[in-house]
Amino acid sequence: MNVLDASFVLSLIFDEVHSKKAESYLNLINESENVVPSHWSVEVTNGLSKAIINNSFSEIESYLFLTNLSSFNIQTATNPSAARILKFSLTHNLSTYDAAYLLLAQDLGATLFTFDEKLIKKAESLKVECIS
What is the pTM of this model? Predict the structure, then answer.
């Protein structure tokens, strides 16, 4: 089971440094069960929206990307609760967004897919498997 961070998914189209690495994991992701926190779709579409506004990605390309993304087995988790996310965020000095990814991976014993350096370091310190 995998937890997919928005930074990982958005790197497929926006991050030249990480896009090839992310692409190399697509088969693994496609063949696995993937879980995301409830804010994930908002975070992904926010990245797309910013790219459209900055003229680095077209609206049509964004919709095609979302269509392709929907072909993967990605489920939205109902847990962890907002209170747990807040507590975890404060305890570990993380944004609530990052806390939700890490707490979800920890709860499920899942592998966290991210390119966020701070999140990677925190995952490693908490013994959460991380692919970056």
Answer: 0.90
Per residue in 79-95, pLDDT (tens digit) is 789 999 999 999 999 99
| Termini Cα distance of the chain | 16
Q: What parts of the chain have a pLDDT lower than 70? A: 15-17
Dihedral of the alpha carbons of 105, 127, 69, 6, in degrees to the nearest 10: 90
Strands 2-4 and 111-113: parallel
Q: Are 89 and 96 in contact (CB under 8 A)?
A: yes
Taken in order of first residue, the domains within the chain and their CATH numbers are 2-131 (3.40.50.1010)
CA gyration radius, the chain: 14
One DSSP character per residue, 30-88 reads HTS-EEE-TTHHHHHHHHHHHHHHTTSS-HHHHHHHHHHHTTS-EEE---S-HHHHHHH
What integer pLDDT is reported at residue 13 of this predicted model? 83
Q: Nearest-CA neighbor of 100 among 28, 5, 2?
A: 5
Q: Of 15, 75, 13, whose CA–CA distance to 41 is shortest?
A: 75
